[in-house]
Design goal:
single chain, alpha+beta, 4-stranded antiparallel sheet, two-stranded antiparallel ribbon, 6 strands
């Protein structure tokens, strides 16, 4: 099976208070990733893009919620997109410098 281009696997890093605490205590980083990406592709993408050694990858899928918007023209119903988050644990002593800015 041919793997996807690594530039399209990782969408963006998740920079929140919770992820900052996970980075300090467990050396774990969070990324918003492509919902079709599997753990092997996520591991390969992080290792190649940030030049680090990945020990563990955990994923969570967040299903889209129903939305209702009221405006002057009436009521519109829709749905948010389903998205996926990946928690990546690095080897001891390694960091990702992009997260150290915040």
């Amino acid at each position: 099976m041919k793997s996807r281009d690594i530039r399209f696997v990782i969408d963006r890093p998740m920079l929140t208070e919770k992820t900052a605490e996970m980075k300090e205590s467990h050396n774990r980083y969070a990324f918003k990733v492509d919902p079709r990406a599997n753990k092997r592709e996520i591991k390969e993408a992080v290792e190649k893009l940030f030049n680090v050694k990945v020990v563990d990858v955990r994923t969570a899928v967040y299903t889209g919620k129903n939305t209702v918007v009221m405006n002057r023209r009436g009521r519109f119903e829709g749905m948010r997109k389903t998205w996926k988050k990946a928690y990546v644990t690095l080897a001891p002593g390694q960091t990702i410098e992009a997260f150290d800015i915040v």
